[in-house]
Predict the 3D structure of the following.
Amino acid sequence: MFRSLRALFAQSTTTPANASADLCATKSALAAALPEQGQLNIPVAKSDDSDLIGHSTIEHGRYLARQDRWTELSEEMRAADQERAAVSDGMPVADLLAFGARSDVVLAAEHALSDGKAISDYDLLGGISELEGEMSDNPDEPMIAAVVALAHIDLAWAWRGTASDATLPPLHRSRCAAHFDRAAAILPECRKDASESPLIAAAGCALLAGQRKSNARVSDEYERLITLDPRNQRHMRAMGSHLLPRWFGSYEELELQALRIAVRTQDIWGAGGYAWVQFDAIALDEEACARVDVEYFLEGLRDIARLRPDQQMINMLSAYCAITIQNGQGLNDQADLIRSQMRDTANWLIRDHLTELHPLIWAHAANGFNNSVRINSPERFAARGQRDALRAISDLFRDELCSGTDVTFTPSGLQFSQN
């Protein structure tokens, strides 16, 4: 979770919480995706720089840290954490503020290490030493300590990089371990001082993922986090990914924990808890996809759409079923059968629930909703998402369009007319 926050800062864009919709239906815009006879008309949500809530929250945290207004930052983080405040895609506001506060330190180190520059220990350690100083000056502020612990986790990943275990230089390995160890030393005090904090519980889960201990009780840590913040689906999705065999778990444990979380969150998500735990896991792993209880998973998606019918959620579920889960086609016969049922679900979601298009969501769907993907041009990224969405939607309405019927999405539902 916390590694993906860096991309939010770098992208400088996200899907707004309240997007304005403009009808985008010119033939020239759709010519590459649609048949000639009928026309697809769907409002397209436009990004508004003044509406980039996630980015502005990160910038606010960064500003407070730069101005040495750490007490104010701590108070805002604590309030957001206690209220379980989140932006429209589920990212907790406290997490965004925390990333903003450490972003100068983390991004500078990442840039230096990625460029391979010869930098002295002081250059790489100076920033984190300043953060440690702020923690020492504010010994009774667990939110500030959490910022420092998360900075150490980010720096550990920066040193780890993308090299394999066999090719990772000894210096990088030792610095990575040292930062993880320092975070592990800080977090217990944070938890003692703020035992009900989802931010600190999530940091503990992030620390486990970095240390990758064979005896790590990942399920227990995530269950505790989900109990603290059950309405945030991001925690359940992260749990499922880390229960794959490639990380800490097994296919059997993934299924068991998905069922357990469904029961624990039934009053909030219906069967959706099962779907959320499996959501990213089955997109990442062919065997997990082949093993999923597809009927229960689809029941979960239906419950999510019923309980959270906002267009951001409907776009995400539609894009997931139409694009994300379809990646890997042909690698596993049983998984392909699951994918065909997901495609049918995309048809239902789009026909019965979609009223406007959110291009950035569809663009992220092609990358498996991997927020760590670097985006050089948000405009081109959104344009790609719009093309992918129009192609997928037009495929669902191919019969109507080929018969000369115009398909128009409206707030009250679909409208069909003969041109």
Summary: The radius of gyration is 22 Å. Residues 1-16+52-216 form a domain with the Serine Threonine Protein Phosphatase 5, Tetratricopeptide repeat fold (CATH 1.25.40). The first strand starts at residue 20 and ends at 24. The CA atoms of residues 41 and 408 lie 5 Å apart.
